[in-house]
Amino acid sequence: MSTTAPAPSLAVSRLAYAYPDGHQALFGVDLTVGRGERVALLGPNGAGKTTLVLHLNGILEAGAGTVEIAGLPVGKEHLAEIRRRVGIVFQDPDDQLFMPTVREDVAFGPASAGLRGDALDERVTEALTRVGMADFADRPPHHLSFGQRRRVAVATVLAMRPEILVLDEPSSNLDPASRRELADILRSLDVTVLMVTHDLPYALELCPRSVVLSGGVIVADGTTQQLLCDEELMRTHRLELPFGFDPRSVDIPL
């Protein structure tokens, strides 16, 4: 008896998009991310990374091509379910945290989707526990450190039990301890992760695979270590490692 393999978390096929002013941001992007993969999306400023991400939950509508999340086409008819399946954690956690307490922020999404009572409380506790912030549930978010607020922002997305977690520059503005804590959390999650970042050592640490988007097309797709060791690729697409950092010296993440 044959079994059908599950659909990948993300399947982008020949995606093209031009903004209303005529600027063509994407030129036929193809990208597949399997369930449970952690993939870094790398590229210079203006490469089209944000435009691609905004297609994943229907904020932008494809000019050509298709986007599917776990087999479900991204489109107006499935928008509510798509936005549950695709959790985006913005670079600035203050863009996501707006309720009086941490608990209310994390509860907002599931409550809006109809969850109530004990089921809602359990969902909130589960999400906060996964990011190590359960003891801060009744604190106002603005009383937390920046790193703590970023972890709460991740919890607001995890509370929706997404198919894919999209992180926009997750390590930016974090002190070394907060950076390490967030890395440990991200490694422990059992969701698909797409991480948009200019922090190449962080990508190497967390994502076995990376994709380079440049000029609206994918120019490289391979192991993160392999790509970061390709000096010509890095130079051509304005990707720079910190001075003295050797990607060959880092153990490949599991």
Overview of this protein structure:
The protein is of the alpha/beta class and about 250 residues long. The protein has a single domain, classed as P-loop containing nucleotide triphosphate hydrolases (Rossmann fold, 3-Layer(aba) Sandwich). Helices cover about 35% and strands about 25% of the residues. The strands form 2 sheets. A 6-stranded mixed β-sheet has the order 6-7-8-3-9-10, sandwiched between helices. It has a 4-stranded antiparallel β-sheet with strand order 2-1-4-5, covered by helices on one side. Helix 3 packs across helix 4, helix 3 packs parallel to helix 5 and helix 4 packs across helix 5. It starts with 9 loop residues before the first strand and ends in an 18-residue tail after the last helix.
List keywords for this structure.
single chain, 254 residues, six-stranded mixed beta sheet, four-stranded antiparallel beta sheet, 9 helices, P-loop_NTPase, ABC transporter ATP-binding protein, membrane
